[in-house]
Specification:
- This protein has 231 residues and is mainly alpha-helical.
- The chain has two domains: 98 residues, no CATH class; 108 residues, Serine Threonine Protein Phosphatase 5, Tetratricopeptide repeat, CATH 1.25.40.
Length: 231
């Protein structure tokens, strides 16, 4: 009887131990899930706010501020390519808006650093390829002669590659169009061809659907403005 009681007590003690372990494990999982949910919600709110600011920006100061904020978000997340992409775009626009010549190269270098990290996380991505072309286009700022022409060729090559990867993405058409529109003829500029690209981009913007809420979805309004100049 004593042995049986001892055996039952031992089983009950073991069962109690299992229950405690199970409860603690469940609580730990619940805490982790809650933390992950909170972090994801925090990321969502930061990205939503930042992208609203980015795509409503109209001056150097705002682009400069939001580029730094997006860079910080990207580096905090580490594994998401989208924040790096938008940070790169913000640095490019800051470079185009800059009034002082001396800081432009550093801004473009920052854009390149961000897009390199985005490409590591999402290789063979047409959006990233198109933005790489935009970076090359930004390299043309304040450059004349052969250096400027060489960067223009590199930009067109990336735009063409992006169009090959995804013919339905409107951004490469818009980007190559606005470059051709602004370049002088001796650099390869051609306003007639530029307007054809704007028209192609307009048709593709009509049916374009971003892959997710924070995926690239810009250029439609700017393309419409450029297209209006072709009439």
């Amino acid at each position: 009887m004593i042995n049986t009681f001892a055996l039952n007590y031992s089983k009950m003690k073991y069962l109690k131990h299992l229950i405690i372990v199970f409860v603690l494990l469940t609580q730990s999982i619940t805490v982790l899930v809650a933390q992950e949910t909170k972090a994801e919600n925090h990321y969502y709110e930061k990205m939503k706010s930042s992208l609203y600011t980015l795509y409503n920006a109209g001056n150097y100061e705002t682009f400069n501020m939001i580029s730094r904020r997006l860079k910080k978000i990207a580096e905090e997340e580490e594994t998401k390519w989208v924040p790096y992409y938008h940070a790169s775009y913000a640095f490019i626009m800051t470079a185009f808006m800059a009034k002082e010549k001396y800081g432009i190269e550093e801004l473009v270098n920052q854009a390149q650093n961000m897009i390199d990290k985005a490409n590591d996380l999402s290789p063979n991505n047409d959006e990233i390829t198109a933005l790489q072309g935009f970076i090359y286009q930004a390299r043309m700022i304040n450059k004349t002669g052969k250096p400027g022409a060489d960067w223009a060729k590199k930009a067109v090559k990336e735009y063409d590659h992006a169009r090959f990867m995804n013919p339905e993405n409107p951004r490469p058409y818009y980007l190559i169009g606005q470059m051709l529109y602004r370049l002088p003829p001796n650099y390869g500029g051609n306003k007639e061809n530029a307007c054809k690209h704007f028209k192609d981009a307009e048709e593709k913007y009509k049916s374009f659907t971003p892959r997710s809420e924070f995926s690239p979805n810009w250029g439609k309004e700017a393309n419409a403005i450029m297209l209006s100049k072709c009439k």
